[in-house]
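so i finally got all the pieces together for this one. its two components total, 852 residues if u count the protein bits. some of the lines might not be protein, just check the labels. i wanna see the whole assembly predicted at once instead of chain by chain like last time, that was a mess tbh
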Amino acid sequence: MRLLNYIILITVSILLQVSAWSQSIVNTKHNLSITGPGAIKASGETQVCVFCHTPHSKQATVQLWNHQPTAANYSLYSSDYLTSKSYPSGSQPNEKSKLCLACHDGTIAIGAVYNTTASGSIGTIALSGGVTTIPAGSASNLGTAFMNDHPVGFGYDPTKDAELVSRSWPWTSAVKLSPNTAEGKVECPTCHEPHNNTNGKFLQISNINAALCAFCHNKTNWAGSIHKTSTQSYTPTGSATTTIGEWSCRNCHQSHNGQGVPYLLKLPEENTCYQTGCHGTTSTGVNTKNIQTQANKTYKHPVNTISGLHKNPDNSTSLNVPNRHAECYDCHNPHQAKDGLHTLKSNAVSNVLTGAWGVTPGSATIWTQPTSFTVTNPVVQENQICFKCHSYYGLGVAVTGVTTILGPSGINLTDQAMEYNIANKSVHPVSVSLNNQTGATTPRPLAAAQMSAAWNGVGTQTMYCSDCHGNDQPTSTTVPQGPHGSAYKFMLTGNAKYWPLNAAGSLWTLDDIRNNRNNWSTNLFCVNCHPIYSGGTWRNNVHSRSNHQGAGIKCVACHVTVPHGSKRSRLIGYRTDISPYNYNGTGQYEKLVISGFRKASGPNSYSTSNCTFTSGCHGTESGTFEP
Amino acid sequence: MKFVLIVAVVLLIVAITGSAQIRNSKHDLSFTSTATTKTTSSSYTEVCVFCHTPHSSDNTSLLWNRTYSNATYQVYSSPTMEQAVPQPGGVSKNCLSCHDGTVALASVINNPGSSGGIQPVFSGTGMIDTTGFTGMGMNLTNDHPISFVYNTSQATDPDLRAATVTGSKVTVSNAGTSLTLYGTTAATATLECGTCHDPHGVSGVPTFLRASNDASVLCFTCHIK
């Protein structure tokens, strides 16, 4: 009986011992002694602590440090973002980090200690296989360039970056600054505990659900974002399959050795978004869309073609020539983006664009370039994102609205903030509803009959830039929507995508409509929303005039070619207007011909007196015309 | 009382001498020793006398025979060690009477022979060289902390093994290695040089250690890492 008790006692104590060891440094790669479990270990040395500590040293050290120090000078992490917050820049890593770097910068032999176990001698402990330093190319060799490593030597300042969790000093957690005071710096031991690998990667606390990252980083609206909540399965390189939501921050960022500098991105810029299982060509996730293919199309935002110009945050200089660019981050905020596209009759920012920043143009007189802007962060309306690049803010001075920058569709880029100016006589209701378009004369909106059924909120409805510009497969649920890229000029979207030229390359006419030519009902861009002619009825009495329906009379003889907005009502242009507002083709009616226009009281109330001409058509009329 | 102690120690000295690990070790400073550091006085052949005497004026049970150093030491400190480490005390002072390199090895109080005997002679400075590893000098900031109460650290540091009190002996033990703290209660027992070292040596164990530090077992006796 006593013997049995003994046996139990011994067994229990052995078990306790084993469980104690299981969390010990002895079972980790930091056991560099000959018994170590890792590939890198000593050829003869049996002691574990000696690689880092000695009970007696002749050096000035802390914590009985025994490893020979590194003398490297490190290039530090920096980013526009931190600069923009006037976040105090970092210093060289302090002693705490340098202890780790004595092996992990790859400049000093792993076995180079002060006090070897041979009594009282300085020397280098031999490693098996002739290994000296941590081999170059090993993920554990961080080198001396720290631009792609989580900053160390940096203070922690939530007053400068409100997205850092603030807590009182000293921190009573495993995660600590060095020293543990308001003046403390983030150093290697802030995140790592070199003796204990319970959490993997020697982390101080578990990083499941990116809890270690979240200990310090509290990105606005991250908790509700799709990248945090998605249950889509994801297999990170070198790790077991998990979900996007669980992998969280690590989907895009890696604390060391990433290829995207700065911001610790896995890959440069858009390639982070294009990684396998996400938004690229290789293999998208179950519910994720392949953006990479879109952005490779002929007419596109230059996401794939321009790199290295994006700043965070961008400003009017970094968005203007010669820095014009468009990265995913310019329109999307991956920390806040949610699932869901926009709905009709609104311009409120859609879920996928949530959290991006934009600009709101200040006021300007009719048909002049707004030159004052307020940064709107986060954006409220989608157009504010577009205005960053498509207004004076990102284009600079263009007194006529037309820049010298040639766009991908072959015309010079124009100023959309000028075109959507609330003081203009006519606009598509991108910024405000037509009832609120103060520059427009009554009746401000079109009549309900001039709109397709879906657009039944005349006068009160608004719309998105992306109602007209977007993907060329707008009805597909598997390809992404939005103006990433398209096979059609101006990335025109909707069922009908041709303007001002039809598929055959000639200018649209009312004759096409009247005589059902050139597939007008499925190709003429305007009919996506404006029936123009249906059920045998013309929706205004100008279009119905047979004189206007001649095959030679093009839409662009009366309407501006860039149908965003006009100095005149109903998107009418004058013969004095310049290209590209004026199509300026060679034929007589391939260019703007009107020299005066006044809006009638209703769509069917037009008479010849509403228009005047210098010559031709119905000649000169008297009265006051819009300037 | 003192007499009984003296008798006991004398007996022990005799007992140890029989199987002395100390003989010819670096702590054997007698002329006949094979150690490098030793006296050049050919008539000086006693081993124990460099540290002990049966006729000590020293008031400890060690029958100490050496002049203590009166140095003030820079003690160990670190951001992760919460308690302040005091000046060396107890048996550590005995070690430092040679190892701080300020007291002549020859500074023996009671030399062998009658009427004060002869003073042993050493070559060179006659002191332990503090540029080498064996001489700690006055700078103990880079030596394992000593002379602090073990339990005070253990109470706040889950990475330290709890001490065991058996009668008036306080030890820290793990996996067959047991190290002794100096003091009779857990609340007072301190960690000293003698916790890790036995100045007389242990058979088969280098560097006068109490137990072999192969696989760092000595360190793991206290540190749960």
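Strands of chain B lie at 164-166, 169-174, 177-180.
Chain B touches chain A at residues 78-80, 131-134, 136, 141-144, 159, 175, 196, 206-207, 213-216, 219-220, 223-225 (CB under 8 Å).
anyway lmk what u think
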